[in-house]
Amino acid sequence: MELPIKKFIPTICLATILLLSASYAVNAQDTSLVPTDPPKSATERSRGNLGTIGNITGLGTIQEKGDVGIYEKIALIANIALSFVGIIASAYLIYAGFRWITARGNEEQITEAKGTIKSSIIGLVVVFISYVVVNFVVTKVITAVIST
User: Fold this and answer.
1) Average pLDDT over residues 6-23
2) DSSP 99-135
3) Do 75 and 138 touch, CB atoms closer than 8 A?
């Protein structure tokens, strides 16, 4: 009896989205995160909230006023894209592990699962290296632009 693995993937994705949404909703109930005097525009309001969260968690602050440079925007977009690719590679890694577990000794399925695991790990390494390179290059470019 073969398990319908393709039916589990949407369920796992939906469960992940629901769990992430639930954690966001729980954090939204904390009244200490709401600034007492919110800025007027939506962009300034979100920057103010992120700065408050950064101060509370100790993860740093963001620039509350003014516009960030084009290089920082490019780095932000690249980091978001790399995050999504990393999530997909992690999901494939979990999927391949599940396939290996449910192979029940079938060498063909085990070989396919091992190949998928290998590809997923290579993908995660590439994403990590890309993240480091993007942030390094953007930091050096910003430093070069500011010093000129």
Assistant:
1) 65
2) HHHTTTT-HHHHHHHHHHHHHHHHHHHHHHHHHHHHH
3) yes
Q: Which amino acid is at 115?
A: G
Report pLDDT for 92: 92
Determine the Cα–Cα distance for residues 119 and 125; give it in Å rounded to an integer.
10
From CA 95, how far away is CA 123, in angstroms rounded? 14
Q: Which two tokens stand for residue 70?
A: 């084009």
Q: Which residues of 66-79 are buried (b: 16+ CB within 10 A; e: fewer)?
A: eeeeebeeebeebe
Report which of 127, 120, 115 is spatially closest to residue 94, judged by C-alpha positions. Answer: 120
